């Protein structure tokens, strides 16, 4: 008899990729649960990646992994950390460099925001100041401060497809590939890692939708396979801003202290998605078409 292919033998995968900057809150956990539901309901592996290039706080990773397991998530294979992968990011940059797609930028933040720009260029877009600096000028600037590396983009917008948002066209500028402190930025690390891990489904908060065209464009230049995007609504605090620690009891630990144990907190998050009490139960009835499209306003319990 031929072996039946199991989900775990397929390379396709979804993922959750938190930054270990503190404890996960209800909004982070809800996005993680959605990523798991999308992956598992489509027979994909589910991977966990720690995005610790920037904002790592001691002990946060262990606490996040513990809380993800506590709400019922499981994942395949080893957890990878971006801080272990710098050579892989540099290799991707070298590939673009070899194609003449990289240039040094010496601008400060203030110089970028004060620079004259085209009337319709999107806010925050790099105005191209250093794109064509003469070599002598580059040498002079290098002595003043280390340069960042930027992509010489040959488009100014790019279209991606999102399961919940449909086609989405957004701005692409000469994005940073390596910061001047030597750290690769999110836009580069995320596309390199998703491809390296065989991830073909990216479920994350819809605050990242606007940067997705940049990432998809960069992935196309690196010859990496396109992924399916699902940008899900965020959880907001009662002030209407993205949920944060200042909103009160928003982590599993704080909720438990306020008299809401983990199973109840898990059920509460699933209920906000119109889903039943535990992740396995939710998986049985999960239908992306029925997901709420609006943010969830979370009112933390008062102890
Ligand atoms: Zn510059």
Automatic annotation (TrEMBL):
Residues 134-145 have a biased composition (Basic and acidic residues). Residues 15-275 form the Glutamyl/glutaminyl-tRNA synthetase class Ib catalytic domain. Residues 1-20, 114-145 are annotated as: Disordered. GO terms for cellular component: cytosol. Its cofactor is Zn(2+). L-glutamate binds at residues 15-19, 51, 186, 204. Zn(2+) binds at residues 105, 107, 126, 130. Residues 7-20 have a biased composition (Low complexity). A motif ('KMSKS' region) lies at residues 242-246. It is an enzyme of class 6 (ligase). InterPro entries: aa-tRNA-synth_I_CS (IPR001412), Glu-Q_tRNA(Asp)_Synthase (IPR022380), Glu/Gln-tRNA-synth (IPR000924), Glu/Gln-tRNA-synth_Ib_cat-dom (IPR020058), GluQ/Sye (IPR049940), Rossmann-like_a/b/a_fold (IPR014729). Keywords: Aminoacyl-tRNA synthetase, ATP-binding, Ligase, Metal-binding, Nucleotide-binding, Protein biosynthesis, Zinc. It comes from the Bacteria. Its EC number is 6.1.1.-. One of its GO terms (biological process) is glutamyl-tRNA aminoacylation. Catalyzes the tRNA-independent activation of glutamate in presence of ATP and the subsequent transfer of glutamate onto a tRNA(Asp). Glutamate is transferred on the 2-amino-5-(4,5-dihydroxy-2-cyclopenten-1-yl) moiety of the queuosine in the wobble position of the QUC anticodon. This is Glutamyl-Q tRNA(Asp) synthetase. It comes from Arthrobacter caoxuetaonis. The gene is gluQRS.
